[in-house]
Amino acid sequence: MASPAGETAAVVDGEPQQQPQPQQQQQRQAGGFGQTIAGIIRIAMFCYFASKFFSPKQKPADPSKPSHLMSNLFHRGEPMDMWFYLSEHEKFNDFGDEGALICHETNIPYAVWKPESTRTLLTTYYPSEALKNNGSLYAHVFFARSGYPVDPNDPEYQPLNCFGRTHPVATYLPKRKADKKKSLLGNPKDSDESNTEVEEVDGKDSDLKDEGPVECVSHWKPNVTINLVDDFTRYPEHGVPPNIAPYLMVEPSTVNYYPTVVFNEFWLLRDKLIIINETVSELPLNLEVSPISMTKWQLFEQIDQSFQIHRSYGSMLDGESDELKRVFLEGNPYLLGVTMFVSMLHSVFDFLAFKNDIQFWNKNKSMEGLSAKSVVLNFICQFIIFLYLLDNDTSWMILASSGVGVCIEFWKIGKAMRIEVDRSGMIPRLRFHDRESYASNKTKEYDDIAIKFLSYVLLLLVAGFSVYSLAYERHKSWYSWILSSLTSCVYMFGFIMMCPQLFINYKLKSVAHLPWRQMTYKFLNTIIDDLFAFVIKMPMLHRLSVFRDDVIFLVYLYQRWVYPVDKTRVNEFGFGGEEESVDTKNITDQEDDKKTN
């Protein structure tokens, strides 16, 4: 089947196809690409085995009646004729209407994998006034043995020699709603633009729960792919698999089945659909008729089911399945194979980094050489991102993951600092105090110097970006402007949070206090993110943010190479190398004394 990636489905009369996705949403898609592929594969395998082992049991055969196995009424290679009609009625019987006949092909060999088995047609359809006013349109395809008619009124018509199927060509999707975002400064020019621009109502990103009923409008499908399934299986009369039974057309007199006809829309992406309204005068139509194997057809069905399960569980938004398909359509197959393999490594490294991070802070006894203020800043950044996701109605799985990250960052503060509850006032308050191992050495002094200069840089960047966003962008409210500005600053300038630790390492001339095992796993994941940056469609700003982390980690590696290991400095578990040597020597001396005595 030819992929429709390169097929034209242009905007008609200036009507927008689909609004660009928000920057942060594309960033979340880039980050969760590996997890999405792994989840789809698992659910597809589960659905396959479930259909095999948990299908309805066959009814016990009647001993008085011989068992009947249904077979295909047509033979492999048998020539067939095809008629393709477009009609506004779901039931079609006007075979004499030449205006409804779009395509007529003859001598199509059935289930033969040769070039003559595939027929294509690129044409233009002119919609009627009823279709422009939110009307319906159906595709009616009929097949018959060569030389036989499909019109029941024809004297030579025979029901055993012809079959057909109906499918809607115009689908209904939620109507585009007016953009609620506005200029908070009251710019009249921007307000006029906001009234004309629209945004797609798409799943959980909409505010439908506050607006009541939703009006749907008709969308045109520019690509129609009709597949004849290569299937000659002999099915029991009451034992057809449940995933095939809805598509099987059984002839009642012989109790055999016709060839299965499938309208394949697996590669039809949503942004290829065209809105049908009064301004549309013509619509492109790309028709294709070709065979498809049973394995390939069932694979498409299982993947579509896995997408639906992910959406029902909230682990996938409505547009993410199209983005994943786009990767396979537009990406290099060799690069995709490497990406799928590396995505599994990404999940393993994520788990190992998380485990070692918790282990390091759980066993850490000294804050010497570690930046406590960076821990606090990381918590603030994670909390800002969590509020932003909550404000944008993100799926609950992403919210849960972000919420767990916020709790872990707050737990780290309790390890890096001493927290006390002050109940002297009417409202209890939390007070944070530096630990003695942090305040009694040069670490606190160097951390204060780094944060002092860092705060100047951050304040200028945040203020400049916020003013630009307020002047040139639209927002739903002042609260939304604050969150979006802070979140964008976290995405763009988050790497600066690691600079205080670099400054402390430079002043102490040592890196022995760092959790290198955890940082190694994070560095490997950063390399994997670099690979995703070339595969996943994402904004240039986020693509650059991936490579800026590489620069920071390379500086860490340079510091590890330049600064020698100090045996007297305590490690991440609060022990020093010389202390362990002294303790080992004392134990050895005591054992020697016991042997002598």
UniProtKB/TrEMBL annotation:
One Pfam match, by short name? CLPTM1
Tell me where it resides: Membrane
Topology with regard to the membrane?
A: Multi-pass membrane protein
Keywords (A to Z) from UniProt = Membrane, Transmembrane, Transmembrane helix
Membrane-spanning residues: 334-354, 375-390, 453-472, 478-499
Task: Give the start-end ranges of region Disordered.
Answer: 1-31, 180-209
Q: Principal place where this protein is found?
A: membrane
Task: State where composition is biased (Low complexity).
Answer: 16-29
Under InterPro entries, the record lists: CLPTM1
Family of this protein: Belongs to the CLPTM1 family.
Q: What protein am I looking at? A: Cleft lip and palate transmembrane protein 1 homolog isoform X2
Q: Which organism is it from?
A: Camelina sativa (False flax)
Lineage per the UniProt record: Eukaryota, Viridiplantae, Streptophyta, Embryophyta, Tracheophyta
